[in-house]
TrEMBL record, chain A:
This is Carrier domain-containing protein. InterPro entries: ACP-like_sf (IPR036736), PP-bd_ACP (IPR009081). Residues 7-88 form the Carrier domain. PROSITE patterns: CARRIER. Signal peptide: none annotated. Pfam families: PP-binding. The lineage of its organism: Bacteria, Pseudomonadati, Pseudomonadota, Alphaproteobacteria, Sphingomonadales.
């Protein structure tokens, strides 16, 4: 995958987190690869995860199977972006 | 039922999405109605059986009951000689298909299969760890399925899987507006966040004004 494509997916995932969780621009901009998500971010409960994944699917045109969703994928911001990038059409 | 704006002239009949999303976009819908009133366009937010303040339990309702509720509200307006235009948000576009409308304006419409996929994911999120819902997750029971506090009849879900929004090919005026982040086909894309995904209901006055302007202009081009 080209770096440009990866940056594009990073910014899509970042904007989706901001929009779905209602994060401020500042908080969204602060997300780093190592920023912990599920279990650390109070807004991200299991209901919010459901909405987040569906919105990421729609924006990136990908399909996420429910059995692919686990704690590891949502552990950090970086792991979520990597998962989305692996799914995205190239 | 909430009513806004002038009691004559064209009326925009607003249909909210199904289930939880209705709560999340109600404030946006009301803001759109108020902005339409400022533009001199009347609007109506009908009650739907099984939702909001309705006394009918949701688990006794089918999609047909929802669409009948919308169609009945529109009949009354038409009896007063008003032209009626559907304004639907998200899965609301699945509910105004049997109503006698002069045109349909849709915000981010989705088909029933997509709604169902979202519901399954919410149900899965609430399931015990290790439990995976299969393809027949709602098909092998007659008991209501509880999804995020809503008890939904399995028959409603089966019916939902086949529903699609009204399109221009079905006749009449149809306009589809989507958010800039939504890649699906649209007549116009507007900047804004998908409030229907927010756990905490929120509104967006700028988006509401922009959408109301689009609706009012579109009603004019439809001859309303």
């Amino acid at each position: 995958m080209l770096p440009d494509d990866y940056d594009q997916i990073d910014s899509t995932v970042r904007a989706t987190l901001r929009d779905v969780l209602g994060l401020s621009e500042a908080r969204a901009a602060e997300l780093r690869a190592e920023t912990p998500l599920f279990g650390a971010m109070p807004e991200l409960d299991s209901m919010a995860v459901a909405g987040l994944l569906t919105e990421i699917e729609e924006r990136l045109g990908i399909l996420i199977e429910d059995d692919e969703v686990d704690g590891e994928m949502l552990e950090t911001y970086g792991s979520l972006v990597r998962f989305a990038a692996a799914k995205a059409p190239r | 039922m909430l009513r806004f704006g002038p009691a004559s002239g064209p009326v925009a009949v607003v249909t909210l999405p199904l289930f939880e999303e209705a709560n999340r976009v109600r404030a946006l819908a009301v803001a759109i109605c108020r902005a339409l009133a400022r533009r001199g366009v009347g609007s109506l937010l009908p009650d739907v059986p099984g939702q909001g303040e309705s006394l009918v339990p949701l688990e006794q309702c089918g999609i047909g009951d929802f669409s009948d509720g919308i169609a009945d509200a529109i009949k009354l307006e038409r009896a007063d000689g008003r032209r009626c235009y559907g304004v639907s948000i998200r899965s609301g576009a699945l509910l105004d298909t049997t109503a006698a409308l002069d045109g349909r304006w849709q915000l981010a419409p989705q088909d029933g299969a997509s709604v169902l996929r979202g519901l399954k994911r919410i149900k899965q999120a609430a399931a015990r760890a290790g439990t995976v819902l299969g393809d027949r997750w709602y098909l092998d029971t007659d008991a209501p399925i509880e999804i995020a506090g809503n008890r939904i009849a399995p028959g409603l879900l089966t019916d939902l899987s086949r529903r699609i929004p009204w399109t221009a090919a079905d006749g009449g005026f149809v306009r589809t507006v989507r958010l800039a982040t939504d890649p699906m086909p649209a007549d116009r894309r507007v900047p804004g966040a998908p409030l229907w995904r927010r756990a905490e209901p929120d509104s967006d006055p700028a988006l509401a004004t922009l959408l109301a302007d689009d609706i009012a202009d579109w009603i004019t081009t439809c001859g309303g």
